[in-house]
Amino acid sequence: MSRSSWAGDDVEALRELAASFFTNEALPREEEFAAQGFPSKDMWQAAGKIGLLCASVPEEYGGGGGTFAHEVAIIEAQIRTGAGAMAIIVHAGIVAHYVNAYATEEQKRRWLPRMAAGDLVGAVAMTEPGTGSDLQNVATKAVRDGDEYVISGAKTFITNGHTAGLVVIVAKTDTAQGAHGVSLLVAEVGDLGQEVPGFQRGRVLKKVGQHSTDTAELFFDGLRVPAENLLGGVEGQGFIQLMVQLPQERLLVAAAGMAMLEAAVDHTVAYTKQREAFGKPLFKLQNTRFELAECATIARVARVFFDDCVEKHLAGGLDATTASMAKYWITDRQTEVIDRCVQLHGGYGYMLEYPIARLFADGRVQRIYGGANEIMKELISRSL
Predict the structure, then answer these.
(1) Distance from C-alpha of 297 to C-alpha of 304, rounded to nearest angstrom
(2) Residue 217, in any domain of the structure
(3) Dihedral, CA atoms, 260, 384, 240, 63, nearest 10 degrees?
(4) What would the pLDDT profile of 244-279 be if each residue is shown by its tens digit?
(5) Residue 190, Cβ neighbours under 10 Å: how many?
(6) Residues 34 and 97 in one domain
(7) 199 with 223: CB under 8 angstroms?
(8) Using CA atoms, how far apart are residues 290 and 293, in angstroms rounded to an integer?
(9) Tell me, what CATH number does 341's domain have?
(10) What percent of the chain has pLDDT over 90?
(11) In the structure, what pLDDT confidence band is assigned to residue 3 with cuts at 50, 70 and 90?
């Protein structure tokens, strides 16, 4: 992988540190985490100890004081090593930034250092059993009762949901106002196994891929949250807050897609050069070389587009339309290229002991979460 223009020496140093950690500490425990369906708390704490969590959160709140570029370097290193258990994208790239952008000063100092240390795992509860990308129609309700909100509803497909101690909940504070009735509230739900009245963790969901990554159902039945935990301090700002943060979320998904795409090409070039068929390496066959030439070209074009988006985001100029383009187009190309690379592996491409098979299974959901790609196209079309 060639060095991106946005990756300075400090970013590359962090990438190397992350690659070493994921290879030596996290990857050996992938099977353990896959069997239980979530990474253990000590792995989060180990990552936090060396500065891999909240790298772009200001140092005054316990973070690394870096930029979005540092978050991308960590994500790329994690995916390329195959140690995918910890959803750092959600914890550090999304939840921490909601807190940093909208929480009070006291809340930032209470929550962010613990998130950076891996002592407090973050999740964002958006999706519901009956509501996916249509966030303005969530059914979860938050009713004001004195100096508290009482939350009732159900969420599903929640990344980090099983182990989260801090959950940003998307809820309706006014059911008559559509998007203007949506608010974000932060719930401190304790450590795994701790009883919190009105809160229950549901199943750890069994997925097609990403078996080691924590994805769960969450249930709220009269959960009481302090009124001061309303992000932004004013009801009805949730949808706007979501829209402001979603471009970064979608670029993070694109970052994962970019890393998967490039990893698939690299793994397949290496495999076809050592695997023999008809008395010679697969790479010597013209069809193999042509397929890989096309896949490598797609990867290069995607990288140029992605790097341009990162540079724009670092400069504060990435618009929602371009972020949607990056999310949909790169994850579509990621899925296409991985599928072609599986084919070049033959039967071994279907065996989970090979990285390409895990990329195939883990990567398919990229076109769904963070806003389905069809929704991305609809958003893009509104700007035309």
Answers:
(1) 11
(2) yes
(3) 30
(4) 998 899 999 999 999 999 999 999 999 999 999 899
(5) 13
(6) yes
(7) yes
(8) 5
(9) 1.20.140.10
(10) 92
(11) confident
Domain that holds residue 284: 240-381
C-beta separation of 221 from 152 below 8 A? yes
* 111 and 140, same domain (yes or no): no
Q: What are phi and psi of 204, to 5 degrees?
A: -80, 115
Is 0.85 surpassed by the pTM of this model? yes
Mean pLDDT throughout 160-177? 95
CB within 8 Å of 265: residues ≥ 6 apart:
292, 295, 296, 299, 337, 341
Which runs of E-coded beta strand occur in the chain? 122-125, 141-145, 148-159, 166-172, 182-188, 199-204, 215-226, 276-277, 280-281
Strand ranges (E), 174-328: 182-188, 199-204, 215-226, 276-277, 280-281
Residue 3 falls inside a structural domain: no
pLDDT in tens, 121-158: 999 999 999 876 777 789 999 999 999 999 999 999 99
Task: Compute φ and ψ for 232, nearest 5 degrees.
Answer: 90, -15
- 160 and 87 Cβ atoms separated by less than 8 Å: yes
Residue 276 φ then ψ, to 5°:
-105, 145
Vertex 17, ends 11 and 19: CA angle to 5°?
Answer: 100
pLDDT for position 1: 58
The pLDDT tens digits of the residues spanning 69-80 come to 999 999 999 999
Instruction: Report the alpha-carbon distance of residue 42 to residue 35 in Å, rounded.
Output: 17
- The answer to whether the CB of 214 falls within 8 A of the CB of 159 is yes
4 in a structural domain: no
* Mean pLDDT across the chain: 96
Question: 25 catalytic, yes or no?
Answer: no
Kindly report, residue by residue over 305-317, the tens digit of the pLDDT.
Answer: 999 999 999 999 9
**Same-domain check for residues 84 and 167:** no
Number of domains in the chain: 3
Last residue in a domain, options 57, 87, 117 = 117
Given the residues 128, 249, 262, 291, select the one marked as catalytic.
Answer: 249
User: What confidence category does residue 192 fall into, taking pLDDT thresholds of 50, 70 and 90?
Assistant: confident
Both 109 and 126 in one domain: the answer is no
Residue 134 lies in a domain: yes
Q: Examine the fold and report which residue of 117, 146, 175 is the final residue of a domain before the chain moves on.
A: 117
